[in-house]
Specification:
elongated; Fin; 76 residues; 4 strands; single chain
């Protein structure tokens, strides 16, 4: 099982964790609401998990342009 982190705005791969046994508390998933978990975490048939996060570039763009928060994706 591997966890793959991708930016939810631009799709850039942010990183991967290749560990066989991790608990949601170690990853901070327990801080998410059920709705946030459904929106941010996808479980693949091979056991991998894809997690939507935000990359540094998109975070900086959001800080400079707060109106971008209105959009699911602001980079095409």
């Amino acid at each position: 099982m591997a966890l793959h982190y991708y930016c939810r705005h631009c799709g850039t791969k942010v990183g991967t964790i290749d560990r066989m046994s991790l608990y949601s508390e170690q990853l901070g998933f327990h801080h998410l609401t059920d709705k946030e978990r459904l929106e941010m975490i996808s479980y693949l048939a091979n056991g991998d998990i894809h997690i939507k996060t935000i990359c540094e570039d998109c975070q900086e763009a959001l800080e400079r342009n707060p109106e971008y928060h209105l959009y699911e994706k602001f980079i095409q």
